[in-house]
Amino acid sequence: MEGKTTLILASASPRRAQILRDAGIAFEVVAPSVEENVLPGESAEAMVLRLAEAKARAAAASIAPQTRQILVLGADTTVVGPDGATILGKPESAEDAARMLRILSGRTHRVLTGIAVIRLHDGEFRSAVESTSVTFADFGEDEIASAIASGEPLDKAGAYAIQGRAGKFVTRVEGSYSNVVGLPLERVRAILSEMGWTGNK
Questions:
Q1: Which CATH number characterizes residue 133's domain?
Q2: Residues of 50-75 as b/e, b for ≥16 C-beta within 10 angstroms?
Q3: Domain count for the chain
Q4: Which residue segment(s) compose the domain that 149 sits in?
């Protein structure tokens, strides 16, 4: 197929959309409904890959046949605690958010994002996991309470947004910063290019 390639973001995340927008990447949004859960015995890496693929495939299935070239991008992000095994997803309550922030306080953890890309016309598929290490200074209980009162942690993996209130506590980031926000831009651009995306020409 010839002509301009259309990018579909299979996510309702405003943070992922903003990362693409800030990079000057044109896209459309098709946000599928996918249950975000952890399967018994599943590693964090396997989970984010599975969910990214599920989102991409659900969005792709909802798109009617087109004459244009389309790439569908799915992504899923989670936080792995300092012990290297505990998955810290979106908190279920304010108390759960406080628990997560206490776990992360003064320690180093990893942020994992699974990305999956489907080329619609021939079903070509690529996926990858990006990992970034983040180190926090110590949080005081008053600072945790203030963060939770703001509402910011309640819909974020690991109960924080690095581009928000938590940013002032970050002492070190090793790897992709945009990955911590929700989408590893450098890795995404590389995979899209491998699959024939040439930018917004």
A1: 3.90.950.10
A2: bbbbbbbbbbbeebeeeeebbbbbbb
A3: 1
A4: 5-194
In a domain, 139, yes or no: yes
For 125-180, the pLDDT digits (tens) are 999 999 999 999 999 999 999 999 999 999 899 999 999 989 999 999 999 999 99
Is 76 annotated as catalytic? yes
Query: Per the residue annotation, which of 76, 96, 138, 155 is the catalytic one?
Result: 76
CA distance 80 to 32: 25
Model pTM? 0.92
For residue 113, give every residue at least 6 positions away whose Cβ sits within 8 Å of its Cβ, in sequence order, or none. 48, 52, 75, 76, 77, 129, 130, 179, 182, 183, 184
Other CB atoms within a 10 A radius of the CB of residue 116 amount to: 26
